[in-house]
Design brief:
The protein has 469 residues and is mainly alpha-helical. 68% of the residues lie in helices and 5% in strands. Strand 5 and strand 6 form a beta hairpin. Helix 6 packs across helix 11. The chain is globular, with a radius of gyration of 42 Å. The C terminus is likely disordered.
């Protein structure tokens, strides 16, 4: 308590107690009585009052000390709580750094392993990719065929000569291995055209991005190479098309996988390779136009950097997922239910992201198909076949564009095939060989000049695909 409060209390107590003296005007005179009994009573009362006043003062001092102790204890608890909150925040914040550190260690270790034994690592990566499309048995892996860019012209001739030597004069028209060689040859023919126009497209887009980024730069920056590179560093379009050119440049390989899973894809972990399964060609692809759209779509994923973006999304979301799980106050009991919820959220967000990527790849894929001088209207029919197949298998409805009756469509990684077919069919009105008529003429000239003199046409009657050119 304050000094003023104590003085007020003492003053009030003094007013209540009998005073041993009386006041008369300005003079104080002691109260004197001739009666001994009265004098004794007043003396005893005065002494007890003084004792009571002393106890009250002691009680006030004790209360002040107790208040001081409580204040000190409150400060100590507050300090402990503050440091506990800081420690908890540090605990939570270290989790993302630990995840990223583990990811970085694994990434560096992968680079070191690849640099030591590149061929062995490529073989292991290829085995992983093949297992992902159902090619797991040794017999299936022996049936995997690879064609190198520029070597498809002699592939069929060498195989035919070897096959005739082994089988003599037997009819080889219905031989399964021969059919797969024909498939691979067509993939290489179409793939080489798509890769060529994709490389041209990427170079043009990179030039446009650099031109747009440098149009407002002062002359002194344009004349200084180091300052120019620094100015272009961080420009989104320049980085996108620079990565795309790095992905596209190089010798390409075309891999045919014997598998019952219809699929085609391009992988960044094994660059400059186009993978396609036999069942996709057998079930959906009948013409080179359709094959060109399939390959153009897959290369568009690589050009637009969808694989890298998807990987970054997965890494970031899983880091957030681990951080949220660490906030569980029940020490793991709530995490069991929370994990399934987060997995559903991640799947739904990833599906939306993936569907947008598919639409972007369709848009660029039909453009590359038209630039390679293929009939884009006929090419779009490959998605109509996929739609009919999905309707028969129950994956899509024939009356709507919603898969699996509606609810589960939010987890679909691809848009409905019928929606894609209609969109590509409409897009073929503007993206077609007529738009690139001059380029098509020069492309065909370069294509045939690249072949050896006297080489047969790359499309024959037994190619297994109809020539729609």
């Amino acid at each position: 308590m304050t000094r003023l409060l104590r003085l007020q209390i003492v003053h009030r107590m003094r007013r209540l107690l009998p005073s041993p003296s009386l006041t008369y005007g300005s003079c104080h005179r002691p109260f004197v009585t001739s009666n001994p009994a009265t004098r004794s009573t007043l003396t005893n009362h005065s002494q007890s009052s003084i004792v009571s006043l002393g106890n009250f003062r002691l009680r006030l001092l004790s209360t002040a000390k107790t208040s001081s102790s409580l204040s000190t204890a409150t400060n100590v608890i507050s300090q402990r709580l503050k440091w506990k909150i800081i420690a908890r925040m540090a605990y939570y914040l270290r989790i993302p750094f630990l995840v990223l550190s583990v990811y970085g260690i694994g990434y560096q270790q992968g680079i070191m392993d690849y640099s030591r034994e590149p061929q062995n690592m490529e073989s292991k990566l290829l085995d992983t990719i093949l297992a992902g499309v159902g090619c797991v048995t040794p017999e299936d892996r022996e049936g995997v065929m690879i064609a190198y860019e520029g070597e498809w012209r002699t592939l069929l001739a060498r195989f035919r000569a070897h096959h005739l030597k082994v089988h003599g004069g037997e009819d080889i028209g219905y031989d399964e291995e021969y059919r797969r060689v024909v498939m691979l040859r067509n993939i290489a023919i179409v793939g080489e055209k798509i890769v060529k126009v994709a490389q041209i497209h990427v170079k043009e887009k990179l030039k446009e991005a650099v031109k747009d980024a440098t149009c407002d730069l002062p002359p002194e920056v344009l004349e200084n190479e180091s300052r120019l590179y620094k100015a272009l560093d961080g420009v989104e379009d320049v980085e996108l098309w620079t990565r795309a050119r790095r992905h596209m440049d190089g010798q390409w390989k075309y891999v045919l996988i014997p598998s019952s899973v219809p699929n085609a894809f391009v992988s960044e972990i094994l660059p400059h390779r186009i993978f396609i399964t036999t069942s996709l060609l057998q079930q959906f692809v009948e013409t080179q136009d359709e094959l060109a759209l399939v390959l153009g779509h897959e290369i568009s994923h690589l050009i637009l950097g969808h694989s890298s973006a998807q990987n970054s999304f997965e890494t970031s979301f899983r880091t957030i997922e681990i951080l949220l799980l660490s906030l569980d106050p029940t020490e793991g009991l709530l995490s069991l239910a929370f994990m399934s919820f987060l997995a559903s959220v991640r799947g739904a967000i990833g599906a939306v992201y993936s569907r947008d990527n598919e639409r972007s790849a369709d848009e660029l894929g039909i453009k590359l198909t038209a630039m390679a001088c293929y009939n884009t209207r006929e090419a779009s029919r490959v998605f109509h076949k996929m739609h009919l197949h999905n309707v028969e298998s129950g994956m899509e409805s024939s009356s709507s564009n919603v898969g699996w009756g509606g609810l589960l469509s939010i987890f679909d990684s691809h848009p409905p095939s019928d929606e894609r077919f209609r969109s590509l069919l409409e897009e073929s009105g503007t993206e077609n060989p007529e738009k690139y008529e001059e380029d098509c003429a020069s492309l065909k000239t370069l294509f045939w000049e690249a072949m050896k003199p006297g080489a047969p046409s790359p499309v024959t009657k037994d190619d297994g695909l109809q020539n729609a050119e």
